[in-house]
Amino acid sequence: MKLNAIIVEDEIQSREILRNYLAKYCADVTLKGEAASVKEGLKLIEEHPLDLVFLDVEMPFGNAFDLLDQLPDRSFETIFVTAYSEYAMDALNNHAAYYLMKPIAIDELVKAVNYVIDIKQCEALLEDKILQPQHKSVPGKITLPLQDGFQVLEVKDILYCKADDNYTEVYLEDKRIVVSKTLKYFEEALSPFGFVRIHKSYLVNVNAVARYKKGKGGSVVISNGKELSVSASKKHELLSYF
After folding, report:
1. CB atoms inside a 10 Å sphere around CB 230
2. What pLDDT does residue 79 have?
3. What CATH code is carried by the domain that includes residue 196?
4. Which residues, at least 6 apart from 54, have a Cβ–Cβ distance to it below 8 Å?
5. What span, in angstroms and rounded, lies between the C-alpha atoms of 35 and 134?
């Protein structure tokens, strides 16, 4: 799969190195342009339909996060390329697909590009389709501890679980149950039954996913109409189910 990409980087030498690496080691990437500032980067993004943006953090008259803040509904993936490791958490919170440190290691660059290709291939197959998971839930039950005892549920009836500190909200078609267990507990218990962690706050039953929508990290629409965010780091795992 070919990726249309741009580089947003203020240092000429850094742009040249990345451009040469992409030409030599990443044949699936087609560069549509290069920008040296946030303003130039935004202009290129408006002019070209893009799959991927290589993004430096520190630039004149703004930074990478200023650029991304102006693009709330972006559908392209971002790979941060920077010499500053302290921005890793901010990059994650902005749904970066990958974080490359300068000087760029060729094997890491190739890995990052292949990761984005996998995501884009899955999105291309799923776009505008009602999803039909390949992995069917195994019939089973789960016991939820309650204050006055416990409740037994069919696993297949659980649509998704939402984290609430040390509690978890378990959502069924017609009700919500609050349980004094962490989301990590439910992730371990339900993973064998076709449940996948899509976000630090959400664990979903893949059989209840009705639609996937592209965006920053993307989102899923559950069969009850609820839309849940997907974090960039979890997107690949989710899309592998379909």
Report:
1. 25
2. 92
3. 2.40.50.1020
4. 5, 6, 7, 8, 9, 18, 78, 79, 81
5. 42
How many domains would you assign to the chain?
2
174 and 224 share a domain? Answer: yes
Dist. CA 104–CA 142, nearest whole Å: 47
Q: What is the pLDDT of residue 148?
A: 64
Question: At residue 103, does pLDDT exceed 90?
Answer: yes
- Helix orientation angle between 106-126 and 232-239, rounded to the nearest 10 degrees: 60
Q: For position 162, what pLDDT does the model report?
A: 96
Place of tokens 């920053």: 216
Over range 79-93, report the average pLDDT: 77
User: Is residue 131 a part of any domain in this protein?
Assistant: no
pLDDT tier for residue 124 given thresholds of 50, 70 and 90: confident
CB neighbours (10 Å) of residue 13? 8
Integer Cα distance of 40 and 34 in angstroms: 8
Is 223 exposed, middle or buried (CB count within 10 Å of its CB: 0-12, 13-18, 19+)? middle
- Residues 140-177 have pLDDT tens digits of 788 887 766 778 888 999 999 999 888 999 999 989 99
Rounded Cα distance, 5 and 116, in Å:
11
